[in-house]
Amino acid sequence: MQAHTIDSISRMKVISQIMKMPEQVLEAQGVTPDDLEGMLAELQEHVESIDLANDLHSIGGLVPLLSYLKNSNAKIRAKSADVLTTVVQNNPRSQQLVMEANGFEPLLTNFIADPDIRVRTKALGAISSLIRNNQPGITAFRLANGYAGLRDALVSDTVRFQRKALNLLHYLLQESNSDCKIVRDLGFPRIMIHLASNQDFEVREFALRGLLELAREESVRNLDRGDVNLRQLLEERTRRIIVMSDEDLCAAREERQLVDSLWTVCYDEPSLLRERGLVYLPSDDELAPDVVRDRFEPPLRAWAARRHDETSESPVPLLLGPAQ
User: Fold this and answer.
1) 1-144+299-318 belongs to which homologous superfamily?
2) How many beta carbons lie within 10 A of that of residue 44, not counting itself?
3) Where are the stretches annotated Disordered (predicted)?
4) 3-state SS, residue 34
């Protein structure tokens, strides 16, 4: 394992040196964006280890990686954000290092303004990992009007972008009830009511979760209980759930419970789902796989190390060299 760590550090140093080279120099040497994307993919495998992720800064690789967020090629901007997601996820030390290196600003710029939707989506994923359990990051996001960016993401036509935005929004509302007022004033409830009838079940569930967080905050009426669109939404979802097959009912377990909870909180009466006995079913006792959590939960950091232990092959050398 020690030899593997030393080898990984050596490779990370080589990659860091390459990232420091100007784009025009790399182009003159015949290095393509695909080559650089592959190099970043290798770096991402190394920083799956939390120790190696924290070493990235000390070997001089973090700042060059952040500079790649401004690369002229969209694929490189997207992949560098993807690598940063791995660096900072569940890693307070690297979160702090990225914040100190002013890494939040280019991520926010790419999330809000990049012309490429994949870059925007990857940047949002990196921001989500960067500010989780990181109060300075949450504060920076709020002060930079990050909520307006989330609102724009929700009205996009890209499902993956919407999912990530709803996921982060739900987390932020759980962390700070006071942010419910910001969300209300920016018009989020209307957007989430619309998304709660989306064909994508994850978008629906996250939208319902967000609405429930707003409804539960009693200090201020952040969700208008008299909104006819809200009532129509819940009635529509109820009708659809009632006519579901047993298999679909099982898959819609969380949606059933969210619709019931929202109805009860908003109208202070049992939902029709509860009256029909459809909120909790006998099959619910068998824990179904948490698809939403699996989609957004970070991969295990030990994955790269385990993969190395399970194979006897040496790492493939990167065929890129320093400028002449």
Assistant:
1) Leucine-rich Repeat Variant (1.25.10.10)
2) 19
3) 304-324
4) helix
pLDDT tens string for the chain (324 positions)?
555 567 999 999 999 999 999 999 999 999 999 999 999 999 999 999 999 999 999 999 999 999 999 999 999 999 999 999 999 999 999 999 999 999 999 999 999 999 999 999 999 999 999 999 999 999 999 999 999 999 999 999 999 999 999 999 999 999 988 899 999 999 999 999 999 999 999 999 999 999 999 998 765 678 888 899 999 999 999 999 999 999 999 999 999 999 999 999 999 999 999 999 999 988 787 544 444 444 444 444 544 434 444 444 444 444 454 444
Q: Which of 151, 180, 171, 191 is nearest to 293 (CA)?
A: 171
Of 45, 37, 56, 46, nearest to 5 by C-alpha is 46
User: Domain ranges in the chain?
Assistant: 1-144+299-318
Q: Which of 33, 117, 115, 119 is nearest to 84 (CA)?
A: 119
What does the alpha-carbon distance between residue 315 and residue 43 come to, in Å, rounded to a whole number?
12
**Nearest-angstrom CA–CA distance, 316 and 63:** 25
Contact between 142 and 123 under an 8 Å Cβ cutoff? The reply is no
Q: What is the chain's Cα-based Rg?
A: 23
60's torsion region: left (phi>0), alpha (psi -120 to 50) or beta?
Answer: left
Tell me the longest C-alpha to C-alpha distance in the chain: 76
Q: How far apart are CA 201 and CA 166, in angstroms?
A: 12
**Length of the chain, in residues:** 324
CA dist., res. 54 & res. 218, Å (int): 42
Indicate the pTM of the whole model. Answer: 0.84
